[in-house]
Amino acid sequence: MRRFNFAAVLLVGLSAIGQPLLAAQRNYDRQMSVAAHELGAPQISSVQLQLNHTMATLTAAHELNTAAVRLIRTAATSFDNAHRMFKLCPDQNVCDVPYSFPEAAMAHMNTTQLENAQKPTKEAGGYTQDGETAGNTSSSSQEPGDLLFQFIAHHLDKSLEQRDRSDTTSWGTVLDAGTGMHSLAWLVAQQKKTAKLVAVTASPSQAEALQQQFKDKLRPQDEILTGDWADSTFLSNFQADVIAADYLIGAIDGFSPYFQDRIFSRLVQHLKPGGWLYVVGLEPFSNSEPTSKATELLQQVARVRDACILLAGHRCYREYPQEWVHRQLEQVKCRMDASERWPNVYSARQVERQIQVGRDKLPFFPDTQLADEMAKYLDQLSQETRKPCSNDQTHSFGFDYVVCAEHQPESSS
Ligand SMILES: C[S@@+](CC[C@H](N)C(=O)[O-])C[C@H]1O[C@@H](n2cnc3c(N)ncnc32)[C@H](O)[C@@H]1O
């Protein structure tokens, strides 16, 4: 409903601005229709009057235009905020993230095309984008997220069994260090095995949304907390048996840029000796070689999307390779015990969604000419990807990974 009101206000505002501009155009046309040789002194003074009037109209139109640009910027900013909130919607799988009229109107303000106006998008995750959501891509039969969580559960159960710790609540206290609806839903479903659950996000609005979504499912001892790992006082004295860092690394730039090199030493402060750390991540796109025209285009779409995010003055996800995680874990005395990779599969819809992320950033470009050219390029990319990434085909590119490591603070390495 709020979306609809917003669109209505925008339309009324724009038509109010458009009317004087059209009037100015009509005056100009009338003036031009008077042949120069017919003019006597009275006509000249009348033309002079008209000229003055036209000048005044043009000045007013210019001022209105400036106001319209400001209005668009303000509307775009408030829309962006609203869009971010929608992205935090507790269940993004069912939330119709609004590619609705106001969003498309702003994205296409400098063109006249609104053909994507009603495009809904429902995929969870997709390849990385800006904002606060990331995660797994959809596969044909089973969500890779499920497979990744199953792998972690299997690894943890097996490791605890080897230590003769397969009693109830054997997972002990579990920290979800970068929580979200997927990891929290999975951990809530494992409550029989856990003694306590602490879920952390740096985003207060996400914490609130998760509180709402899981309010009937959390036990009294479970907590959803807002905090930043860059804050050295956050969660002091807290110790966990298991820590899950599920797509946390890639999202750090959005909250504490360049803290990635310190995140593992920060997390292991909260991990008991012998405790398990599970790191889930997306291998950066630039680390994978395209194997077909479609995957080449996929990589290009990701580059252009990130360029749009940067040109809008926003921050992109910054993913790190699995090898980088291995090196970091060694430095904080975590022994790598197992790891696994899952190829990512992309459908035409997911590719188009990434192009749309780029389009959504155009109103924030500092230069309208650049935004216009980028809009054309995005349309061209969309055309180009349409054939190799047609609806019934999916393309495998890059991978997500899980790294399982045991905290061994006493080890010599
Ligand atoms: C992409 S989401 C993780 C996906 C999530 N596990 C899920 O299942 O949907 C990244 C999470 O890491 C959190 N995060 C990023 N940087 C952080 C920081 N510096 N301190 C605390 N949390 C952070 C974000 O607030 C968000 O909750």
Automatic annotation (TrEMBL):
Give the span(s) annotated as Disordered.
116-142
Q: Which domain of life is it from?
A: Eukaryota
Alphabetical keyword list: Signal
- Quote the biased-composition stretches of kind Polar residues, using this chain's numbering: 130-142
Q: Which CDD domains match?
A: AdoMet_MTases
Gene3D superfamilies xref list: Vaccinia Virus protein VP39 (3.40.50.150)
Leader sequence range is: 1-23
Q: Keyword Signal on this protein?
A: yes
Give the InterPro entries listed for this entry: SAM-dependent_MTases_sf
Q: What is this protein called?
A: Methyltransferase domain-containing protein
